[in-house]
Design a protein that fits this description.
The chain is an all-alpha fold. The protein folds into 2 domains: 62 residues, no CATH class; 183 residues, no CATH class. It is built from 13 helices and no strands. The longest helix has 28 residues. The chain is elongated and about 70 Å long. The two termini are 32 Å apart.
């Protein structure tokens, strides 16, 4: 015979209470949130245990409303955003990190050997440094866009993230912020490339490349700003993915009271 909702809630509370604090091996950070969000058919938020005459609310998250669980997820996304932007939006944030350092574009890599042969190899090294510096200057603008996307997350978005793959939150950010991030980064990168001398360095490379048969043709029409912005966003999403993985599995990464309350 099907259990009524109070019976299911009571069993859920007992199960959650049996999970040791910080025992990530018993389930990911979001596993408990997923169960809480979907425990009542039709998505209805469960009543608090006090309202049901079952005593105080469980500290493991039983009895939290969908709104509280959604707020916990928003906290998680905002915490991840703050960490990532703080990491990449500083001097050396891109250039000093091999995982996200912006490489030379393929057309420039093709002419690297010929330029070195004529004593101009340092020009490309200088250009690559300046591209990474431009990304570092643009990155702080991402924080407002990312936190705004987190604030606008709906209950349906929360269900998708809770029930999705390990990078579901990162994919949510990609869907909802890529266009805004590109629009925001582009003028900053454009100005930064000019300000740090990358435009001049690129023009010097183009001038040198023009004297190299065939190899220099691809360089002439290449858009350095678009390439730099694209790679800057790749680096941003790379570390958002790592932060999401940490929040899902590592209790130490849950740095707000609501995160601890919902997912403790």
């Amino acid at each position: 015979m099907p259990m009524d909702p109070p019976s299911r809630r009571a069993i859920l509370s007992l199960l959650l209470a049996a999970v040791p604090f910080g025992a990530a091996a018993q389930g990911s950070l979001l596993d408990q949130g997923r169960g809480l969000l979907n425990q009542i058919p039709g998505g209805t938020a469960p009543r608090s245990p006090e309202a049901s005459g079952q005593g105080p609310a469980s500290s493991s998250g039983a009895g939290l409303s969908q709104g509280e669980i959604g707020s916990g997820l928003k906290d998680a996304l905002k915490v991840a955003s703050q960490r990532v932007v703080g990491r990449v939006g500083k001097t050396g944030g891109y250039n000093g990190d091999p995982a996200i350092r912006i490489p030379l574009p393929a057309p420039l890599q093709k002419i690297q050997a010929p330029l070195k042969a004529v004593g101009a190899g340092d020009m490309l090294n200088d250009l690559q440094l300046k591209m990474n510096q431009a990304a570092e200057q643009a990155a702080p603008k991402a924080l407002g866009i990312l936190t705004d996307a987190a604030s606008k997350m709906t209950i349906d978005d929360a269900r998708t993230i809770l029930g999705g793959p390990p990078d579901a939150a990162t994919q949510y950010f990609k869907r909802t912020t890529s266009a805004s991030l590109t629009a925001s980064f582009r003028p900053i990168v454009d100005n930064s490339l000019a300000g740090v001398g990358a435009v001049g360095a690129f023009q010097a490379v183009q001038a040198k490349a023009s004297g190299i048969p065939l190899a220099g043709q691809e360089v002439q029409g290449f858009n350095l700003t678009d390439f730099t912005v694209g790679k800057a966003l790749d680096g941003l999403f790379h570390y958002l993915g790592e932060e999401e993985a940490a929040i899902r599995t590592n209790p130490a990464a849950r740095t707000t009271d609501l995160l601890k309350k919902v997912f403790g």
